[in-house]
Write the C-alpha coordinates for this entry.
Amino acid sequence: MTVLVFLDPAHPHGRLADPTQPSILATDQGVTRGDGIFESMLAVDGTPRKIHAHLDRLAISARTMDLQIPGANVWKSAIATALMAYSVSDSAATGEAGQCVVKLVVTRGPEGTNSPTAWVTVNPVSLALAAQRAKGLNVLLLERGYDSDIAARAPWLLMGAKTLSYAVNMAALRHAHSQGADDVIFTSGDELVLEGPTSSVLLAHISDDSGVPIKRLITPHLDTGILPGTTQGALFAAAKAAGWELGYGPVTPADLLDADAVWLISSLRLLAPVNTIDGTEIGTPEIRSALTAELSALLAQTL
Ligand code: PLP
Protein backbone atom coordinates (compact mmCIF):
# COMPACT_ATOMS: atom_id res chain seq x y z
CA MET A 1 0.00 0.00 0.00
CA THR A 2 1.11 3.57 -0.70
CA VAL A 3 2.48 5.63 2.19
CA LEU A 4 1.16 9.20 2.00
CA VAL A 5 2.48 12.25 3.91
CA PHE A 6 1.17 15.79 3.36
CA LEU A 7 3.37 18.82 3.94
CA ASP A 8 1.34 20.79 6.47
CA PRO A 9 2.54 23.82 8.50
CA ALA A 10 0.69 22.40 11.54
CA HIS A 11 2.82 19.21 11.32
CA PRO A 12 6.53 20.08 11.04
CA HIS A 13 7.49 16.46 10.23
CA GLY A 14 4.65 16.01 7.74
CA ARG A 15 1.10 14.70 8.29
CA LEU A 16 0.65 10.97 7.65
CA ALA A 17 -2.62 10.37 5.81
CA ASP A 18 -4.64 7.31 4.89
CA PRO A 19 -4.06 6.79 1.12
CA THR A 20 -7.39 4.94 0.80
CA GLN A 21 -9.34 8.02 1.92
CA PRO A 22 -10.14 11.12 -0.21
CA SER A 23 -7.47 13.78 0.41
CA ILE A 24 -7.44 16.24 -2.51
CA LEU A 25 -10.24 18.73 -3.22
CA ALA A 26 -11.98 18.26 -6.57
CA THR A 27 -11.11 21.91 -7.33
CA ASP A 28 -7.37 21.39 -6.85
CA GLN A 29 -5.64 22.82 -9.93
CA GLY A 30 -3.31 19.86 -10.00
CA VAL A 31 -6.39 17.76 -10.74
CA THR A 32 -8.38 20.19 -12.91
CA ARG A 33 -5.46 21.54 -14.97
CA GLY A 34 -2.40 19.37 -14.34
CA ASP A 35 -1.01 22.60 -12.85
CA GLY A 36 1.80 21.42 -10.62
CA ILE A 37 5.21 19.77 -10.52
CA PHE A 38 6.73 16.55 -9.26
CA GLU A 39 9.89 14.55 -8.68
CA SER A 40 10.41 10.77 -8.51
CA MET A 41 13.48 9.43 -6.76
CA LEU A 42 14.80 6.04 -5.78
CA ALA A 43 15.42 5.19 -2.13
CA VAL A 44 17.74 2.30 -1.31
CA ASP A 45 17.67 0.77 2.18
CA GLY A 46 15.70 3.76 3.44
CA THR A 47 17.98 6.46 1.99
CA PRO A 48 16.78 8.65 -0.92
CA ARG A 49 19.32 8.84 -3.73
CA LYS A 50 20.46 12.20 -5.18
CA ILE A 51 18.00 13.97 -2.88
CA HIS A 52 19.67 17.36 -3.36
CA ALA A 53 19.61 17.10 -7.15
CA HIS A 54 15.88 16.28 -6.98
CA LEU A 55 15.07 19.06 -4.51
CA ASP A 56 17.10 21.54 -6.57
CA ARG A 57 15.23 20.54 -9.75
CA LEU A 58 11.89 20.78 -7.91
CA ALA A 59 12.80 24.33 -6.87
CA ILE A 60 13.76 25.22 -10.46
CA SER A 61 10.49 23.74 -11.81
CA ALA A 62 8.59 25.79 -9.18
CA ARG A 63 10.37 29.01 -10.18
CA THR A 64 9.70 28.32 -13.86
CA MET A 65 5.96 28.23 -13.21
CA ASP A 66 5.74 30.89 -10.45
CA LEU A 67 4.75 28.38 -7.80
CA GLN A 68 5.59 28.96 -4.13
CA ILE A 69 6.66 25.65 -2.61
CA PRO A 70 7.92 24.51 0.82
CA GLY A 71 11.68 24.72 1.44
CA ALA A 72 14.13 21.83 1.16
CA ASN A 73 14.19 21.10 4.91
CA VAL A 74 10.40 20.77 5.06
CA TRP A 75 10.55 18.26 2.21
CA LYS A 76 13.37 16.33 3.85
CA SER A 77 11.38 16.00 7.08
CA ALA A 78 8.29 14.77 5.26
CA ILE A 79 10.38 12.33 3.19
CA ALA A 80 11.97 10.93 6.37
CA THR A 81 8.53 10.47 7.95
CA ALA A 82 7.25 8.72 4.83
CA LEU A 83 10.27 6.40 4.55
CA MET A 84 10.01 5.50 8.24
CA ALA A 85 6.32 4.61 7.82
CA TYR A 86 7.11 2.63 4.67
CA SER A 87 9.89 0.62 6.35
CA VAL A 88 7.38 -0.86 8.82
CA SER A 89 4.62 -1.36 6.23
CA ASP A 90 3.78 -4.58 4.41
CA SER A 91 4.78 -2.96 1.09
CA ALA A 92 8.45 -2.85 2.13
CA ALA A 93 8.57 -6.61 1.48
CA THR A 94 7.24 -6.29 -2.11
CA GLY A 95 8.82 -5.07 -5.37
CA GLU A 96 12.58 -4.82 -5.92
CA ALA A 97 14.33 -5.73 -2.63
CA GLY A 98 15.48 -2.80 -0.50
CA GLN A 99 14.31 -0.21 -3.04
CA CYS A 100 11.30 2.08 -3.12
CA VAL A 101 10.02 5.06 -5.10
CA VAL A 102 9.69 8.40 -3.31
CA LYS A 103 7.47 10.82 -5.19
CA LEU A 104 7.15 14.53 -4.34
CA VAL A 105 4.16 16.43 -5.75
CA VAL A 106 3.12 20.09 -5.47
CA THR A 107 0.04 21.54 -7.13
CA ARG A 108 -1.18 25.12 -7.38
CA GLY A 109 -3.81 24.13 -4.83
CA PRO A 110 -7.60 24.57 -4.82
CA GLU A 111 -9.01 27.17 -7.21
CA GLY A 112 -9.54 30.56 -5.55
CA THR A 113 -6.90 29.95 -2.87
CA ASN A 114 -3.26 30.83 -2.90
CA SER A 115 -2.26 27.68 -1.12
CA PRO A 116 -0.30 24.95 -2.92
CA THR A 117 -0.99 21.34 -2.00
CA ALA A 118 2.17 19.33 -1.38
CA TRP A 119 2.69 15.68 -0.52
CA VAL A 120 5.10 12.75 -0.55
CA THR A 121 4.26 9.16 -1.46
CA VAL A 122 6.37 6.03 -1.12
CA ASN A 123 5.71 2.87 -3.15
CA PRO A 124 7.60 -0.29 -4.13
CA VAL A 125 9.70 -0.20 -7.34
CA SER A 126 7.79 -2.16 -9.97
CA LEU A 127 9.44 -5.43 -10.93
CA ALA A 128 8.77 -4.52 -14.59
CA LEU A 129 11.10 -1.51 -14.32
CA ALA A 130 13.77 -3.62 -12.70
CA ALA A 131 13.41 -6.19 -15.52
CA GLN A 132 14.03 -3.50 -18.14
CA ARG A 133 17.53 -2.99 -16.76
CA ALA A 134 18.28 -6.64 -17.46
CA LYS A 135 16.37 -7.31 -20.69
CA GLY A 136 16.76 -4.00 -22.51
CA LEU A 137 14.19 -2.17 -24.60
CA ASN A 138 12.80 -2.04 -28.10
CA VAL A 139 12.16 1.63 -28.78
CA LEU A 140 10.25 3.71 -31.34
CA LEU A 141 11.26 7.21 -32.45
CA LEU A 142 8.18 9.44 -32.17
CA GLU A 143 7.71 13.13 -33.01
CA ARG A 144 7.28 15.40 -29.99
CA GLY A 145 5.77 18.15 -32.13
CA TYR A 146 8.08 21.12 -31.62
CA ASP A 147 11.45 22.33 -32.87
CA SER A 148 14.60 22.03 -30.78
CA ASP A 149 14.88 25.83 -30.31
CA ILE A 150 11.40 26.25 -28.82
CA ALA A 151 12.55 26.58 -25.18
CA ALA A 152 14.28 29.93 -25.77
CA ARG A 153 11.42 31.27 -27.94
CA ALA A 154 8.45 30.21 -25.79
CA PRO A 155 9.14 30.16 -22.04
CA TRP A 156 5.41 29.70 -21.34
CA LEU A 157 5.73 26.15 -22.62
CA LEU A 158 7.63 25.42 -19.37
CA MET A 159 10.21 23.36 -21.25
CA GLY A 160 12.70 21.76 -18.90
CA ALA A 161 10.31 21.89 -15.91
CA LYS A 162 8.98 18.61 -14.49
CA THR A 163 5.30 19.50 -14.58
CA LEU A 164 2.37 17.20 -13.83
CA SER A 165 1.23 17.45 -17.46
CA TYR A 166 2.47 14.02 -18.53
CA ALA A 167 -0.63 12.97 -20.47
CA VAL A 168 1.24 13.29 -23.81
CA ASN A 169 4.18 11.29 -22.46
CA MET A 170 1.87 8.51 -21.27
CA ALA A 171 -0.02 8.52 -24.60
CA ALA A 172 3.28 8.10 -26.46
CA LEU A 173 4.10 5.09 -24.30
CA ARG A 174 0.66 3.56 -24.96
CA HIS A 175 1.20 4.12 -28.68
CA ALA A 176 4.57 2.34 -28.50
CA HIS A 177 3.04 -0.57 -26.58
CA SER A 178 0.25 -0.86 -29.15
CA GLN A 179 2.98 -1.28 -31.80
CA GLY A 180 4.73 -3.99 -29.78
CA ALA A 181 7.57 -1.69 -28.61
CA ASP A 182 8.61 -1.05 -24.99
CA ASP A 183 9.43 2.64 -24.95
CA VAL A 184 9.88 5.85 -26.94
CA ILE A 185 12.57 8.33 -27.90
CA PHE A 186 11.05 11.69 -28.84
CA THR A 187 12.42 13.68 -31.78
CA SER A 188 11.96 17.39 -32.50
CA GLY A 189 10.35 18.88 -35.63
CA ASP A 190 13.86 19.66 -36.90
CA GLU A 191 14.75 15.99 -36.39
CA LEU A 192 16.97 16.04 -33.34
CA VAL A 193 16.83 13.47 -30.56
CA LEU A 194 15.21 14.82 -27.38
CA GLU A 195 14.45 12.39 -24.51
CA GLY A 196 12.19 9.50 -23.55
CA PRO A 197 8.74 10.15 -22.04
CA THR A 198 10.19 9.33 -18.59
CA SER A 199 13.93 9.15 -19.25
CA SER A 200 17.04 10.80 -20.67
CA VAL A 201 18.83 9.39 -23.72
CA LEU A 202 22.50 8.43 -23.61
CA LEU A 203 24.75 6.96 -26.30
CA ALA A 204 28.27 5.55 -26.23
CA HIS A 205 31.09 5.13 -28.75
CA ILE A 206 33.98 2.80 -28.00
CA SER A 207 35.90 3.38 -31.24
CA ASP A 208 36.34 6.39 -33.52
CA ASP A 209 35.76 6.48 -37.30
CA SER A 210 39.17 4.86 -37.95
CA GLY A 211 38.60 2.09 -35.38
CA VAL A 212 40.84 3.59 -32.69
CA PRO A 213 39.47 2.72 -29.21
CA ILE A 214 37.83 5.63 -27.38
CA LYS A 215 35.34 5.97 -24.51
CA ARG A 216 32.79 8.65 -25.35
CA LEU A 217 29.34 9.28 -23.86
CA ILE A 218 26.92 11.71 -25.51
CA THR A 219 23.52 13.02 -24.43
CA PRO A 220 21.25 15.57 -26.18
CA HIS A 221 21.92 19.22 -25.42
CA LEU A 222 19.70 20.76 -22.73
CA ASP A 223 18.93 23.73 -25.01
CA THR A 224 16.50 21.41 -26.79
CA GLY A 225 14.08 21.95 -23.87
CA ILE A 226 14.48 18.47 -22.38
CA LEU A 227 14.43 17.79 -18.66
CA PRO A 228 17.92 17.96 -17.13
CA GLY A 229 18.24 14.34 -15.94
CA THR A 230 19.65 13.90 -12.45
CA THR A 231 20.77 10.36 -13.31
CA GLN A 232 22.55 11.48 -16.49
CA GLY A 233 24.23 14.26 -14.46
CA ALA A 234 25.39 11.83 -11.76
CA LEU A 235 26.62 9.30 -14.33
CA PHE A 236 28.54 11.94 -16.29
CA ALA A 237 30.36 13.03 -13.12
CA ALA A 238 31.34 9.42 -12.31
CA ALA A 239 32.23 8.57 -15.94
CA LYS A 240 34.48 11.62 -16.23
CA ALA A 241 36.44 10.49 -13.19
CA ALA A 242 36.73 7.04 -14.83
CA GLY A 243 38.27 8.49 -18.01
CA TRP A 244 35.22 8.75 -20.28
CA GLU A 245 35.04 11.69 -22.66
CA LEU A 246 31.68 13.46 -22.34
CA GLY A 247 29.68 15.36 -24.92
CA TYR A 248 26.34 17.12 -25.28
CA GLY A 249 24.41 16.88 -28.58
CA PRO A 250 22.93 17.86 -31.05
CA VAL A 251 22.12 14.18 -31.52
CA THR A 252 20.34 12.98 -34.67
CA PRO A 253 18.46 9.69 -35.12
CA ALA A 254 21.36 8.58 -37.39
CA ASP A 255 23.76 9.17 -34.46
CA LEU A 256 21.70 6.75 -32.35
CA LEU A 257 21.81 4.04 -35.02
CA ASP A 258 25.56 4.57 -35.42
CA ALA A 259 26.30 4.28 -31.67
CA ASP A 260 27.87 1.24 -30.00
CA ALA A 261 25.17 1.43 -27.33
CA VAL A 262 22.16 3.59 -26.42
CA TRP A 263 20.36 3.73 -23.07
CA LEU A 264 17.25 5.22 -21.55
CA ILE A 265 18.35 6.43 -18.15
CA SER A 266 16.35 7.67 -15.16
CA SER A 267 16.25 7.63 -11.38
CA LEU A 268 13.97 4.61 -11.10
CA ARG A 269 15.02 2.45 -14.03
CA LEU A 270 18.70 3.47 -13.86
CA LEU A 271 20.38 2.32 -17.13
CA ALA A 272 18.12 0.39 -19.51
CA PRO A 273 19.96 -0.60 -22.72
CA VAL A 274 18.15 -0.01 -26.00
CA ASN A 275 18.22 -3.22 -28.05
CA THR A 276 16.51 -1.84 -31.17
CA ILE A 277 15.28 1.52 -32.50
CA ASP A 278 12.45 1.27 -35.03
CA GLY A 279 13.51 -2.38 -35.49
CA THR A 280 17.24 -1.69 -36.14
CA GLU A 281 19.62 -3.30 -33.66
CA ILE A 282 21.99 -0.97 -31.79
CA GLY A 283 25.53 -2.38 -31.47
CA THR A 284 25.73 -6.04 -30.50
CA PRO A 285 24.32 -7.89 -27.46
CA GLU A 286 27.87 -8.44 -26.13
CA ILE A 287 28.89 -4.75 -26.37
CA ARG A 288 25.54 -3.56 -24.97
CA SER A 289 25.78 -5.82 -21.98
CA ALA A 290 29.48 -5.13 -21.27
CA LEU A 291 28.97 -1.34 -21.46
CA THR A 292 25.77 -1.53 -19.40
CA ALA A 293 27.64 -3.44 -16.68
CA GLU A 294 30.54 -0.95 -16.73
CA LEU A 295 28.33 2.15 -16.58
CA SER A 296 25.91 0.62 -14.06
CA ALA A 297 28.86 0.03 -11.73
CA LEU A 298 29.85 3.69 -12.13
CA LEU A 299 26.27 4.81 -11.50
CA ALA A 300 26.03 2.61 -8.41
CA GLN A 301 28.97 4.52 -6.91
CA THR A 302 26.97 7.73 -7.17
CA LEU A 303 23.81 6.29 -5.57
N1 PLP B 1 13.17 13.16 -18.98
C1 PLP B 1 11.88 13.01 -18.59
C2 PLP B 1 10.80 13.56 -19.46
C3 PLP B 1 11.58 12.38 -17.37
O1 PLP B 1 10.30 12.26 -16.98
C4 PLP B 1 12.65 11.86 -16.58
C5 PLP B 1 12.38 11.18 -15.31
O2 PLP B 1 11.28 10.95 -14.91
C6 PLP B 1 13.95 12.01 -17.03
C7 PLP B 1 14.19 12.68 -18.24
C8 PLP B 1 15.11 11.47 -16.24
O3 PLP B 1 15.28 12.23 -15.07
P1 PLP B 1 16.00 11.65 -13.78
O4 PLP B 1 17.28 11.02 -14.21
O5 PLP B 1 16.23 12.84 -12.93
O6 PLP B 1 15.07 10.65 -13.17
Summary: The chain has two domains: 3-125, 131-300. The chain has a mean pLDDT of 95.
